[in-house]
Amino acid sequence: MGTTQLETVPEPKYWHLRTVLSEALDSEFSVGEILPNERDLAARFGVARATLRQALDQLELEGRLQRRRGVGTTVAPPRMGVSVGTAQHAWPGGPDDAWQAVDCTLEVPPATVAETLVTGRDEPVHTVRRSRVSQGRPVAAELLYIPASSVPDLSAIDAPSGAARARAVLRELQHLELERHENAVELGSARADDAKELDRLPGAPVLVVTTSFIARGRVAALSVATYRADTCRLTFGDFGGVEIHHGPERRAS
């Protein structure tokens, strides 16, 4: 990566640096290669480290770079294409669901979740934890909140905890007639627990996909799935499903 002094430009200095760095990534670096440290990069480009960090943050958000614990900043592989949403009339945990059950506990959900599910503030709900892996990399972590009223026969299931309990809850959920589901997507920052599961640093950009599953005129289950923003480009199909695609276009849409 050659030395390039930045001239005065009408656009923000970090954005111009981002363009210069992006071109260098295409011509001089390969996927997985570690970039020089921030001090060396800032010196080569004649910018303050704060400006450099802004440019690196932008490239990470665009999926060009990855920051990994104990490794440093590396050139990211292309974005992956994985299906996020389920079919319009399919519950989570069906035969075509790519998520993997991890655990299930009975706990009081956050207040916003309780409000959506119309449960009491101190009423525990089944909290299913699931993960999503694509091409050997963790790409998403999910919390699926299911009130007891949605799975009334679960007491007969002999699976007190763990992945078996999670699968049992999802099987019972299939007995309800699903009317529809509603998706919402927002950009957020990885919390400590999500960051650890997704092999990211705390505060790294993530895409949060919230899905409400409607049955009997109410929200019978609520999914909060956290996706690595550096791996995802979202598009919405005609039938309400959400998909993640990869390709030459690298911005989130």
From TrEMBL:
PROSITE patterns: HTH_GNTR (PS50949). Keywords: DNA-binding, Transcription, Transcription regulation. Pfam families: GntR (PF00392), UTRA (PF07702). SUPFAM superfamilies: Chorismate lyase-like, Winged helix' DNA-binding domain. Residues 11-78 form the HTH gntR-type domain. CDD domains: WHTH_GntR. InterPro entries: Bact_HTH_transcr_reg, Chorismate_lyase_/UTRA_dom_sf, Tscrpt_reg_HTH_GntR, UTRA, WH-like_DNA-bd_sf, WH_DNA-bd_sf. It comes from the Bacteria. Gene3D superfamilies: Chorismate lyase-like, Winged helix-like DNA-binding domain superfamily/Winged helix DNA-binding domain. This is GntR family transcriptional regulator. The lineage of its organism: Bacteria, Bacillati, Actinomycetota, Actinomycetes, Kitasatosporales.
